[in-house]
Write a structure and sequence with these properties.
Layout: E1 9-13, H1 18-31, E2 34-38, H2 48-54, E3 63-66, H3 69-75, E4 81-84, E5 90-91, E6 102-105, H4 114-119, E7 124-126, H5 139-153
Parallel strand pairs: 1-2, 1-6, 2-3, 4-6, 4-7, 5-7
């Protein structure tokens, strides 16, 4: 991106579905966002579905792997982390994003651990869903919604 602000970070905790991660990698490449993969992945980094979803944009993506969220947080002391969950009280529109924030998403089947959300209620956010039938959004769609709201709030879409 053509600005001097630090990039946002998308953090995927134990992602399970290769096309979701590939699509999020493409999102990161398009927005200058750094992608962090944390914990045990549900696929190989060499997975053909992962590569297909990212198309030929992999060289445009800064991907980093971590064994745990604690390890990542220790590497970035003082960083702000936003935890996304359908169980959060605040919406993503109520967050006050700042350039350089970490946007954390849980695995597709379980989301983020309940204790993590309980320890960080002020940093936990959700995307409103107005259907009694639909329980959650696709991970790649949720990541796109959150990162673009963060970019909007920080004036990075005005280019």
């Amino acid at each position: 991106m053509a600005n001097n602000l630090p990039p946002f970070h998308i953090v995927l905790i134990e992602p399970e579905i290769p096309p979701n991660t590939g699509n999020i990698a493409r999102l990161c490449g398009a927005t200058g966002t750094i992608l962090h993969l944390v914990g045990k992945l549900g696929f190989s980094i060499d997975d053909k579905h992962l590569k297909r979803a990212g198309l030929d944009y992999w060289e445009a993506v800064d991907i980093r792997q971590w064994s745990s969220l604690v390890e990542l947080q220790q590497a970035f002391p003082g960083a702000r982390f936003w935890y996304t969950s359908k169980k959060a009280g605040r919406t993503h529109l109520q967050a006050d994003f700042q350039a350089g924030d970490f946007l954390v998403f849980g695995k597709e089947s379980l989301g983020l651990p309940e204790d993590l959300l309980q320890h960080h209620p002020e940093q936990s956010i959700r995307i409103p869903i107005h259907s009694p039938v639909v329980r959650s959004l696709n991970l790649a769609n949720a990541a796109a919604i959150i990162v673009y709201e963060a970019l909007r709030q920080t004036g990075q879409l005005d280019e």
